[in-house]
Specification:
Blueprint lengths: L1 E5 L3 E3 L19 E2 L2 E6 L2 E7 L10 E4 L4 E4 L1 E3 L11 H8 L4 H6 L4 H10 L2 H17 L2 E7 L6 H17 L3 E9 L10 H18 L5 E6 L6 H13 L3 E6 L7 H7 L4 E4 L8 H6 L3 E4 L1 H7 L6 H6 L3 E4 L13 H12 L3 H7 L2 H6 L17 E4 L5 H5 L6 E6 L2 E5 L8
Parallel strand pairs: 1-6, 2-7, 8-9, 9-10, 10-11, 11-12, 12-13, 13-14, 14-15
Antiparallel strand pairs: 1-4, 2-3, 4-5, 7-16, 16-17, 17-18
Bound molecules: N-(iminomethyl)-L-glutamic acid (NIG) and fe (iii) ion.
């Protein structure tokens, strides 16, 4: 079936001329087309044509996007959407001056969500997660990563990954699963790390890989969680089992995570709020994507990652919400883009590249999504404005009015308009 995405005000292609990534200052070049429409065939982009040539063609369907801005379908590459239970009480404690780490050390934090997730059934989890995915789709997100990490037992980590796999079947978007069994030590193994590491390495990783329950393996390298040595053992094992790697690191302490991630060719290093200067060049020389999460800095009232230094030194920078109940109860990617611009000095263009092509790199999907190029997926987010900078200028406001995945309209809402 041939369709036309007809007559938009702007097509923000994020074209990389086949490079499929935009390092450093290249992230500023969005390659914006005007006076053109996009031809799609089934689930793929097949051509861009000047509007005065449209009559020469016949289409099975025309999607009129006059006065709108077309972007690649957004890629949300780091979330912990698979959780249940509220941490509002913890939020209240933090507002009174307790730190996130203090709360974690006294048994709250991640482990309080673990308690809630362990009590929840498969069906309970599906029910609470669904509206979150609907909300992501309403923002123009067509590729979504979700981590496990709140089960922290053989049974409960597999339960979470099965939930994510079921959601991927229910929803038309691509939902990519990451195994985060190494999120923190569960209370029963607080004083016996080797026992929990054995469950991760000998039981969970082989089972997950064999049953295709996750594509990626993540860990939290932090003084309150896993040491660099422990992460290294997990990574070597995950790699052997065919999983790709990503790492939460340098959030509160820099304890060697970057070196382990680079040594093991991780797809991404995420957080980096306390990244030391001497690691910036190492990252810039690598193909590892720096996934920055300014929502965490905002939510915890904490320092921001050195986005400017990373970009100025030619690193690959992506952005994500890190949506989770403790450190970033923020599921609005638009807000994250604006925070990145306002608080981390990223340009509007850099923030757009960071939630499209570079985020696709963090998920190893850059060959099929993240930019509008011939042969790539017909995934689009279509914003109700005529100028793309409005997307970042409208802080926290969802201007996405149409989400298209694989050539199909999966969300439409005429109310998501820019104010006149
Ligand atoms: O990415 N840093 C570790 N994990 C999450 C927080 C999880 C939680 O607090 O529940 C994060 O910030
Ligand atoms: Fe995270």
């Amino acid at each position: 079936m041939q369709q036309l995405i007809a007559n938009p005000a702007q097509i923000v292609t994020v074209n990389s001329n086949g490079a499929n990534v935009k390092r450093g200052h290249k992230a500023n070049n969005l390659d914006v087309l005007t006076g053109h429409s996009i031809i799609i065939e089934n689930d793929l982009i097949v051509d861009f044509i000047a509007n005065d040539k449209i009559e020469k063609y016949k289409f099975d369907n025309i999607i009129n996007v006059k006065d709108k801005v077309v972007l690649p379908g957004l890629v949300e590459c780091h979330t912990h959407t698979a959780f249940t239970g509220s941490r509002a009480e913890e939020f209240r404690l933090r507002l009174q001056g307790k730190s996130y780490e203090e709360i974690a050390e006294s048994g709250g934090g991640i482990n309080s969500t673990v308690e809630a997730v362990r009590k929840a059934t498969f069906d309970d989890l599906i029910r609470v997660i669904k509206p979150r995915i609907d909300y992501f789709i309403s923002q123009g997100i067509t590729t979504l990563e979700i981590k496990s990490g709140y089960g922290l037992s053989y049974y409960d980590e597999i339960k979470l990954l099965q939930v994510i796999s079921e959601l991927n079947k229910i929803y038309p978007i691509d939902i990519k699963a990451t195994f985060l069994g190494a999120h923190t030590f569960p209370p029963e193994y607080k004083n016996d790390h080797s026992k929990y590491l054995k469950i991760i390495n000998d039981e969970l990783i082989p089972y997950i890989a064999k049953n295709n329950l996750a594509e990626f393996c993540d860990a939290f390298c932090e003084s309150t969680a896993f040491s660099a040595g422990e992460v290294n053992r997990i990574f070597e094992n995950a790699k052997k089992n065919g999983l790709k790697l990503r790492l939460h690191t340098d959030q509160f302490n820099s304890i060697g995570g970057i070196d382990i991630a680079l040594k093991n060719n991780a797809l991404s290093v995420d957080h980096l709020e306390v990244l030391p200067d001497n690691k910036i060049l190492d990252l810039a020389k690598s193909d590892t994507v720096c996934v920055l999460l300014p929502g965490v800095s905002f939510f915890l009232n904490y320092s921001y990652a050195p986005a400017r230094k990373l970009l100025d030194n030619n690193a690959i920078v992506a952005l994500a919400t890190d949506f989770n109940p403790g450190s970033s109860y923020i599921s609005n990617l638009n807000l994250i883009m604006s925070l990145a611009a306002i608080k981390m000095n990223m340009t509007i263009e850099e923030t757009i590249t960071a939630v499209t092509l570079n985020a696709a790199n963090a998920l190893n999907m850059q060959k099929s999504v993240g930019s509008l190029e011939i042969g790539k997926k017909a995934d689009f987010s279509i914003f109700d404005t005529t100028e793309y900078s409005d997307i970042v200028y409208n802080v926290g406001k969802n201007l996405n009015s149409i989400t298209i995945k694989n050539g199909k309209v999966i969300f439409q809402n005429n109310a998501n308009r820019k104010f006149d």
